[in-house]
Amino acid sequence: MPKLSKTVIPMMDRVLVQRIKPQQKTASGLYIPEKAQEALNEGYVIAVGKGLVTQEGKVIPSELKEGDKVLLPPYGGSIVKVDNEELILFRDSEILAKLQ
Amino acid sequence: MPKLSKTVIPMMDRVLVQRIKPQQKTASGLYIPEKAQEALNEGYVIAVGKGLVTQEGKVIPSELKEGDKVLLPPYGGSIVKVDNEELILFRDSEILAKLQ
Amino acid sequence: MPKLSKTVIPMMDRVLVQRIKPQQKTASGLYIPEKAQEALNEGYVIAVGKGLVTQEGKVIPSELKEGDKVLLPPYGGSIVKVDNEELILFRDSEILAKLQ
Amino acid sequence: MPKLSKTVIPMMDRVLVQRIKPQQKTASGLYIPEKAQEALNEGYVIAVGKGLVTQEGKVIPSELKEGDKVLLPPYGGSIVKVDNEELILFRDSEILAKLQ
Amino acid sequence: MPKLSKTVIPMMDRVLVQRIKPQQKTASGLYIPEKAQEALNEGYVIAVGKGLVTQEGKVIPSELKEGDKVLLPPYGGSIVKVDNEELILFRDSEILAKLQ
Amino acid sequence: MPKLSKTVIPMMDRVLVQRIKPQQKTASGLYIPEKAQEALNEGYVIAVGKGLVTQEGKVIPSELKEGDKVLLPPYGGSIVKVDNEELILFRDSEILAKLQ
Amino acid sequence: MPKLSKTVIPMMDRVLVQRIKPQQKTASGLYIPEKAQEALNEGYVIAVGKGLVTQEGKVIPSELKEGDKVLLPPYGGSIVKVDNEELILFRDSEILAKLQ
Which pLDDT band holds residue D3 (cuts at 50, 70, 90)? Predict the structure, then answer.
């Protein structure tokens, strides 16, 4: 998990995620050319907002927590740069699944 | 049902489905050319999310459970690869019917 | 009503319908050419889902039941093939009227 | 009001209406050419559904009843043929006004 | 206010309005050419429906009553002809303001 | 604030606003050419409707009152002419901020 | 934080933000050409509206307060000029995250 100089607290039902980078070398140490590297749709949860605020003002906390490994949608999310680290902010409802 | 190295827990009202592959051989063992194979819109439920979260924060569990045989819509769903196995994540409300 | 090898249980507020085929012969036995056959917008209800699930999780059962004769909308519905029989899945709210 | 061989029971908040045909002859018996006949946007209510089903499953009956004379919107409605009689199914909320 | 041969009862939250025709003559009696006549966006309320029916079936009566002078939106409304008189049906929420 | 011959009572959650005209002369009395005059997005509240009517029929009064100085959105609002005075009707939720 | 001659009170769930300007000089005092200056998506909260008004008229106050450092979305917001200072009005739900 990245050590950030600033704490990023996602607002409402947003979730901050770091995408898992595809393997750059084969098991035997050979470099995999960028084009052959399969874009992974997996990532780690870095931070979770307090939750969805309903029409009645009720807060519905997310199912996710820091450290969870998740399956990401092919589209969506806002890319944000913190300390030159590229992270992504998704809405809780955009995350497809948890991976264990 | 596929043996996956990772457990995939669909989020919210999502359902993980494996599409039933069309028959590749006739009863008498002849290979059916790919074009003649009729795409099946049937599949097995692999995993079910906890359910739809309503505006009041209530959780409405799905009618479906692991192992159910279902009728799939012609479109929709997110294709996800787990251990090179192609699975599909649908919203519970996209599934057309159960088959018994 | 068609004898199906599988039971099809429509999900939620869906209704499975078999469209009534237009008459192919006149009363005196003459064949009506396909173009002259008037597409009927009537059908029989084969199966009914448990009903619409509201935002509060309440289930509102359909007004329809197996065997009802209904008036179908000109568009909409998902065509599904079961045992080579072409059936149509409509949302309960798409059905125009009951015929008695 | 048309004598129909089948009873048509509109579903939910639908209303079955027969459009009033424009006068084909002047008072003194002269035929009015079709183009000069002014399309009337008035009709009679033939049958009324049980009413709008709300998100909580409550049924809100229509203000209209069989025999009411109504003002029709220029667009909308589904044309249905029953015993070769052309009728129109509107949603209750599409009807503009009652005429007395 | 126009004397109509039929009573028009607007449905639900609709309001029947007669648009005020622009002045055709100047104070000193000169005819104002049609192009110079400024289209007025004012009118009189002729009839008011029972009111908006909410999702719970509650009826919210309109703020308007017969005879009110109102400010009309530049667009919207359905033109209806009653006894050759051109009137307009607006939704209650389309009316901009009352004029006193 | 303009003296109007008619009272304009905005309907529901509407607010009647008069846009503040940009300065036409510099402090030392020089005329500022129209193009150089910076369009102001500020205005005074002339009148306020009774408020937003919710789905349950509850009325939510506006935060604004007659005489408030407000920040206007770049778009939206309906221009209305009263006694040749150009005023603008906004929805309460379109007003950006109050200025004190 | 800018000293404004007027107090700007955002309406409802709006938040007034001042965008943090990118560094114009390197640590060693060299000027960074405008094109090389990386647009920052960070800003300070100047003022916060009373909060979101729900369908029932309940007010849900914002999570943010004056002085908070926030992460801004790449799009959205209304640019407003106060005392020649360029500020931005966002809806509370548009703000991506808080930075500490």
Answer: low
Q: Per-residue confidence at B74, pLDDT binned at 50, 70, 90?
A: confident
Name the minimum distance, in Å, from the CA of A85 to any CA of chain B. Answer: 26
Nearest alpha carbon to residue D82 among D22, D2, D1, D28: D2
What Cα–Cα distance (Å) separates residue A75 from each residue in A92, F57, F58? 14, 40, 40
Q: Does D100 touch chain E (CB under 8 A)?
A: yes
Fold of D14-99: 10 Kd Chaperonin, Protein Cpn10; Chain O (2.30.33)
Q: Is the separation of the CB atoms in B48 and B62 below 8 Å?
A: yes
Which of C9, C4, C6, C82 is CA-nearest to residue C50? C9
Contacts F–G by Cβ distance under 8 A: 51
pLDDT (0 to 100) of residue A10: 96
E11 touches chain D (CB under 8 A): yes
Q: Where are the domains of chain D?
A: 14-99
Record: contact C14-B97, CB cut-off 8 A: yes
Topology classification of domain F14-66+74-95: 10 Kd Chaperonin, Protein Cpn10; Chain O (2.30.33)
CATH number of A14-95, picked from 3.40.50.2300, 2.30.33.40, 3.20.20.70, 3.30.70.20: 2.30.33.40
Query: Phi and psi (nearest 5°) for E21?
Result: -80, 140
Domain C14-23+30-65+72-99: CATH architecture, name and number where available: Roll (2.30)
Chain F residues near residue G57 by CB distance under 8 angstroms: 54, 58, 60
Neighbors of chain E by Cβ distance (3+ pairs < 8 Å)? D, F
Average pLDDT over residues E16-41: 77
- CA distances for C33 relative to C4, C22, C29, C96, E78, angstroms: 29, 11, 12, 28, 44
CA angle G4, G6, G9 (to 5 degrees): 105
Q: In the predicted model, what is the mean pLDDT of chain A?
A: 87
Chains A and B touch (3+ CB pairs under 8 A): yes
C56 lies within 8 A of chain B by CB: yes
Neighbouring subunits of F (3+ Cβ pairs under 8 A)? E, G
- Is G100–A11 a contact, with Cβ atoms under 8 angstroms apart? no
Q: Let me know if chains G and F touch, i.e. at least 3 Cβ pairs under 8 angstroms.
A: yes
Do B57 and A54 lie within an 8 Å CB cutoff? yes
Which of G11, G56, G78 is facing F58, going by the closest CB pair?
G56
Respond yes or no on whether ipTM tops 0.90: no
Segment F26-78, tens digit of pLDDT: 778 777 776 666 667 899 999 999 999 988 888 999 999 999 999 999 888 99
Q: Look at E14 and D98 and tell me if their CB atoms are within 8 Å.
A: no
Check if the beta carbon of residue A10 is closer than 8 Å to that of residue G97: yes
The tens digit of pLDDT for each residue in A7-16 reads 899 999 999 9
Residues within 8 A of G (CB atoms), A 67-96 only: 78, 80, 89
Asked if F77 contacts F3 with a C-beta cutoff of 8 angstroms, the reply is no
Mean pLDDT of E27-45: 76
Band of the pLDDT at G28, cuts 50, 70, 90? confident
Are B90 and B17 in contact, with CB atoms under 8 Å apart? yes
